[in-house]
Amino acid sequence: MADVPAESHVSLDGLYMRQRGALVGYARRKLREADVPESVVGAEDVVQSAFAKAYRDPARIQQPRAYVYELIRNEVLAYARRRSCTDGKALVISCLEEVDPTAAVEERCDVQRALGDLPAQQRTAVYMVKALGYRQDEAAALMGKRPGTVATHVARATITLRAVLAPMPVVVCVMVFGVSAESIRRYSAASQAGRRVADVVPGLIPIVLWAVLALLLLGATAVLSRVLPTAQRGSGPSEAGLGAGLAIPAALPRRVFARLIDYLAAGVVLAPIAVSQGTAAYQHLQGKIATARQSGVTVTVWLIDETTAAQLGVLASSLLLTGLFLEALPTALWGRTLGKKLLGLRVLDVESQTKPAPAPAVQRALTQLTLNILTVGVVGLLWCLVDRPWRQCWHDKAAKTFVADDKKFQPAPRSFG
User: Which of 6, 19, 197, 263 has its CA 20 to 30 Å from the CA of residue 291?
Assistant: First the structure.
């Protein structure tokens, strides 16, 4: 504190007008002492940043001059630490490498959509603390809340954003939880019935096979998304109602073939559980019928009881998880499923013309699964024949997406200024 002049109770406005030169000189000297060059940050920028932070809540500042000097020192120390962390880590970019900003733009759009879906209080809290740099007590004072309430909002918003922006860990956790719950249930039943654990292990094999096959197909989709090149986007035939710079919707035949490939992949994944649960249900019903015949009394044998209902629930849960794992997750990560990648198709958001966010991808998959269960999935699929201009099916209408053809793309004209 020896290099700071004596304190004087002045306002921030007066301090900036009268001592701006001295503050800039002080910041420049501190930058030299911290070995932070002007190419990293200038003294003017440090002073401006210090005053911007001071103006967040000027009423609580008792000694503005000392407070601003302290902020300047903290700013310089922050830049010095940031520079020391990056020393020796050279960023080498080949001059022949083409830098594609599409991924960065898509990630930013995903973050903005995820923030927009948060409740107002959580969105305000996480934006003030994580983006604007307010401390939790400062954010609480501005929001009229307690610091603990703000901390709770930030924690819940962070958990939600991680779940939305990183669907892979969530789905894997759901799969592990499902396998664990089924294992506990079967082992508990075995212990209560006095059976050996070895008699129950074969019942877990279909679940393990389902998880392995689902992971293999998801990995195959990821590999193909990187290995198979995407069709070069150049000028293509225009279509009524679509302007330049917009992707062209795909025709129905290729979409049908892509859908058949996806159904075949889902059938392969579901086969172990479907066969095991169906066989167990059939044997259970045959046992009930045999018992009724031996009793010699006319009884009603219900097809749906506790056992068959549980087996049907396992099959329905597997169907739901398979749809999310093979349809929603690849759509959110790469904008396409395995069948769409093989046939050169992709799912795009109607407004942003980019891959859909995780929430619309899940909504699209669930709507399609529901329509198939209600036996109107074919009608929803054929709806694209009359829909214009995006040729959307019913599940695309629900998620505000459409299926585009990689081989047809109208490049948007470049504009400057």
Answer: 197
338 burial level (CB within 10 Å; 0-12, 13-18, 19+): buried
- Report the alpha-carbon distance of residue 243 to residue 412 in Å, rounded: 8
Q: How far apart are the first and last CA of the chain?
A: 49
pLDDT at position 261? 93
E runs forming strands in 227-330: 247-249
Pick the closest to residue 189 from 271, 88, 306, 289 (CA basis): 306
Question: Which two structure tokens, joined as six digits, stand for 241?
Answer: 């109602």
Beta strands 345-349 and 247-249 are: unpaired
Looking from the CA of 35 toward its CB, the CA atoms found within 13 Å total 5
Mean pLDDT, residues 138-149 taken together: 85
Q: What secondary structure, in 3-state letters, does 253-275 show?
A: HHHHHHHHHHHHHHHHHHHHHHH
Q: Cα separation of 397 and 379, whole Å?
A: 13
Which pLDDT score is estimated for 42?
81
Of residues 299, 357, 294, 291, the one with CA closest to residue 328: 357
Per residue in 58-110, pLDDT (tens digit) is 777 778 888 888 888 888 888 887 776 555 444 444 444 444 566 667 677 77
Q: How many CB atoms lie within 10 A of CB 151?
A: 17
Selected residue with higher pLDDT from 26 and 159: 26
- The pTM score is 0.51
Cβ contact 196:190 at 8 Å = yes
Find where tokens 């703000």 sit: 150
Handedness of CA 277, 278, 282, 283 (dihedral sign): negative
Under 8 Å CB-to-CB from 156, ≥6 apart: which residues? 122
Identify the band that residue 209 occupies on the pLDDT scale cut at 50, 70 and 90: confident
Which position has the token pair 């919707």?
Answer: 249
